[in-house]
Design a protein that fits this description.
alpha+beta, Glucose Permease (Domain IIA)
Amino acid sequence: MAVVATVVAGCANPSHRAPVEDRSGRPVGTSTEAAAPDSAAKPPPPGQENLGKPGYYAVKPGDTLIRIGLENGQNWRDIARWNNLENPDRIEVGQVVRVVPPAADANGVVVRPVLPAARADARTAGGAASGASSAASTVATPAPTSASAGSAPSAATAAPAPAAREGDDDVHWTWPASGSVATGFDEVRSKGLSITGKAGDPVYAAADGRVVYAGSGLRGYGNLIIVKHNATYLSAYAHNQTLLVKEDQAVRRGQKIAEMGSSDAERVQLHFEIRRQGKPVDPAKLLPSR
């Protein structure tokens, strides 16, 4: 029997799990040499023709769509849709997936995130809002695709691509919690700020945006909320006690979105990250002085 080594980052519910498969196909108790003929017959992981191309990502052991989305500044549901994943809960080591919208240019720079899909949904469903609902119903487990819903309101009044990119860095930030900073940003040890507080203290959205993830499916982050603000920025709010928003929900700067806690942490704290095109940046350089 072929061994399938599955790596799972635990989720809020089973449908959010996105395990990674090892497709070696080696039978239990046999040597590599003995399994070689069988292994050679196995097809390569999907997407190998795009390996190394800008805008594509090769899945590593331990990856989930949630983590891939966070690391690339995208909604994990969008990635599932862009790659036509019939079951977005399962990806394979070595599989190559698109991590930028089909509307990206040759260098992988986003021109207009999700807009073509949103327009297509609007045409097939008779309007932008119903188009979002149609896209949501077509994505396989675990839940509806939020990308089209998030983009649908802008589809009807979409500006030309260059104008759509203007102001992507012009985000009006506010502090996500009132406590003091216990741990500052460090690219190696801390990808964000650790803000102190008491269990149940409010956690606020740091800027206007849309929730692209709310759950506990990313190991080390506990109860996590990820908000996408535009094509450039995401923010992440980890270790919460209670989540007060759902995926695909629009939020406003300063809106209470969670209650501080210690999930997957040694003490009560808010771990707060800002990511620019998937890369962690120091939030203290973007947040207002206080």
